Amino acid sequence: MQGVGGAGVGSTGGLVSCEQVSDSIVQYQRNVALLEKMACSVGTKNDTSVLQTQYNLQLDVIHELGQRIENQLRSQESRLITLPRTEASSLRTTHVKLSRDYRLVEQHFKNVQLDVKRKRSLAEAMQRDAARMEEEEGKNKREMGGEDMMAEGMRWQMQIQEDKINEEIMREREEEIKNIHKGMHQVNEIYKVLTDLAHLVDSQQEGIDQIETQMENAQENTATGLRHIEKANESSQSQCVIS
């Protein structure tokens, strides 16, 4: 997103340019991208208390940036009311574009938060399952008095956790592949329609060319026939004179 000209009055009474709003949105977008990078580690072995603290701090930064952009956009909106119609029209176009850009990044930010919430819920459920299984295995160990069964249970537990993670990853990838195939199918359908139209235009043009050729041939035949008739008339008249 590039800065553009124009200005509005800030919430503190200072002048807020469209370049400033655009820069704020770019900064907001970069911080959302950093948050998304952190989100990739949520629910994995790297999801430590340190990561959670960093994630929460990053949320605070993004919320603060978002509030600042909201104030800047509201200030510009108020400024538009006081401007002459012609000047306001140009500035409003820029204002609408900036608002749209911000809302798109804001929606992406919300999607990242929802994804993190889903991953953490899944991780917590897996931890509860693991704790329950560990408790059951401990009970079995005490009852059976064997360590081999406990080791086997832990391996089974780890395998289940890994299978659940792989299953979730596969579901997400399958959904992405479906969306890609859907998009390719739509592109192919559009291309087919365009190709059919092109073939139709070519066919119509060939028909027109044939008609034009036939008309030219008919004109030539008519002219030839007229010349023959004229020659026949001339010959007939000559014979009448001689007689």
From TrEMBL:
Region (Disordered): 125-145
Domain T-SNARE coiled-coil homology: 170-232
Classification via InterPro entries: SNARE (IPR010989), Syntaxin (IPR045242), Syntaxin_N (IPR006011), T_SNARE_dom (IPR000727)
Biased composition (Basic and acidic residues): 126-145
Annotated PROSITE patterns: T_SNARE
One Pfam match: Syntaxin_2
Family membership noted in the UniProt record: Belongs to the syntaxin family.
PANTHER family reported in the protein's UniProt record: LD27581P (PTHR19957:SF38), SYNTAXIN (PTHR19957)
Protein name from the UniProt record: t-SNARE coiled-coil homology domain-containing protein
Organism of derivation: Cyclostephanos tholiformis
